[in-house]
Amino acid sequence: MRKSIILSIPAAALVLTAALNPAFTPKAAYAGADSATAGSGECGPSNNYGEAVLGFEGGGDQYATNPGSTATGSYQFLFGTLVDLGYIEPGQAKPPNGAGNWEGIVWTGKGGIYSRDQFMSSTEAQDQALSEFTNRNLSHIKNTYQPGQMVDGIPMTDGGAALASHMLGSGGFQKWAESGFSPAGLDPDIAAAHGWTPEEYQRHLMERVAAGGCYDPANIDSSGSGELQQDLPEIFLMPWEPNYTVPAILPGMLPTAT
């Protein structure tokens, strides 16, 4: 299983540095990690936000594809997302779902990438795409939530918002926020495509919110009480490899939405 190096440095620094220097590469450690606490968005140096995304997306397989979509690589970027991030020329028809090298699709050459196979072969390109995508999402959703806002018993954090918006996209996250972070704000067709009810979709998103903020997903409470039951110094995500010992996953510090 590969280790991601994404988003494990101080928050605002990543936003500003990435904006000023497109070639910016996140560092593997950040200052103040030893003082990190649960729910702070600074969940310790052993793992980071990229690791949390892996647990919900490609499961550590940089060549992962999805037979039901165009999801690609470790972080399961869709064709449209790769267009938005500048890796693929816009205006082209969406390629078939599942595996394949998307023959005939014109790539821009960003990061030296000229094909889907090249993108999946490059952990550096995938990590950089995650950094750009996360920064962009946080910039778009920054006014839709308040850090510490209680949702189903879990405080909303920048890390939690980022991990939920990785699945929803910034527009989907905004609709979810407008509904008061309820199942009513979720697309029932997308829920059905995953084999979920809207309520099950809500639960999955809240597991992302908990993981991104270093809270125990067992604390999710959909009863409407709005109370945080407890928080833990570390959380455990489901393993993505058979017979794999469950690691302590401590997502790293996220860019602060300012």
Topology readout:
Elements: H1 11-20, H2 49-56, H3 79-84, H4 116-121, H5 123-141, E1 150-151, E2 154-155, H6 158-178, H7 188-193, H8 198-212
Antiparallel strand pairs: 1-2
Helix pairs in contact: 5-6, 6-8
How would you sum up this structure, described in words?
There is one protein chain. With 258 residues, this protein is mostly helical. It has one domain: Lysozyme (Orthogonal Bundle). It has helices at residues 11-20, 49-56, 79-84, 116-121, 123-141, 158-178, 188-193, 198-212, and strands at 150-151, 154-155. The chain has a two-stranded antiparallel ribbon. Helix 5 (123-141) packs across helix 6 and helix 6 (158-178) runs antiparallel to helix 8. The longest helix is centred in the middle third of the chain and has 21 residues, at 158-178.
